[in-house]
Specification:
This protein has 10 helices and no strands. It is mostly helical.
């Protein structure tokens, strides 16, 4: 998830930054060249691991499509996404309720496939490994809209509230929130502990005015204070 999100967001961030701020074009081009070199070198160094993972994922998806075999890493995630969609279809307005995903999804899986081996219910985790599907399944349309609003609102706040336009990190938090929003398609960053810490930290930065974090010295005020002392 994070790798896929980074591959989508980072080139987009670099492109928009270079277009909007000509002063950074030289540095941006240098970063682009370094990034391409790193990707090429990494593709050779980790070629075996990458090819193994791609073959494994392809095989697991093929087993799901042709044999309905979900007993694998990728297969279980596909199963949990399908079950979340089924839960949402049954109760779109209010969902099954917070914390209900595992039991409800496992029950649906067993009801639809009572003779499966291993039991499909045993492959279900505590969340759907997709924040949007999970919220839709457990909290219905309100939950789905809320999780979308959290990420889009956080990103919008980070991009709009910055009052230090010359600082190099002024848009970094906004892009980081967008990366987390894409990662949410492969996990639930508000349930998984480490991801939750990171998400809350990003949201705190997004809602903070950076003029409060990096205040510019007010010489007139400083002089007045010194005179009064």
């Amino acid at each position: 998830g994070p790798w896929i999100a980074a591959l989508v967001i980072l080139p987009l961030q670099l492109l928009i930054t270079l277009i909007r701020d000509p002063r950074l074009r030289r540095g941006g081009l240098a970063i682009l060249v370094v990034g391409v070199v790193v990707i090429v070198v990494s593709s050779f160094v980790f070629a075996d691991q990458i090819q193994t993972r791609v073959r494994q994922a392809t095989d697991e998806i093929t087993r799901v499509v042709h044999d309905q075999d979900y007993d694998s890493h990728t297969g279980a995630r596909i199963l949990m996404a399908k079950l979340a969609l089924e839960m949402f279809r049954e109760k779109p307005l209010i969902g099954y309720g917070g914390g209900s995903y595992h039991d409800a999804a496992a029950a649906i899986a067993q009801k639809q496939n009572p003779d499966s081996d291993p039991p499909l219910g045993s492959l279900v985790h505590n969340h759907a490994h997709n924040a949007y599907l999970h919220e839709a399944a457990t909290r219905g349309i309100p939950g789905l809209l809320l999780i979308i609003a959290v990420f889009l609102g956080g990103a919008a706040a980070a991009f709009r509230r910055s009052s230090c336009p010359d600082h190099p990190w002024r848009h970094g938090v906004g892009w980081a929130v967008l990366v987390m929003a894409l990662c949410a398609m492969f996990d639930h960053p508000l349930i998984t502990q480490n991801s939750c810490y990171m998400t809350m930290m990003l949201m705190s930065f997004a809602l903070a005015d950076c003029s409060q974090i990096i205040p510019e010295p007010d010489r007139k005020t400083a002089g007045t204070i010194s005179a009064d002392v």
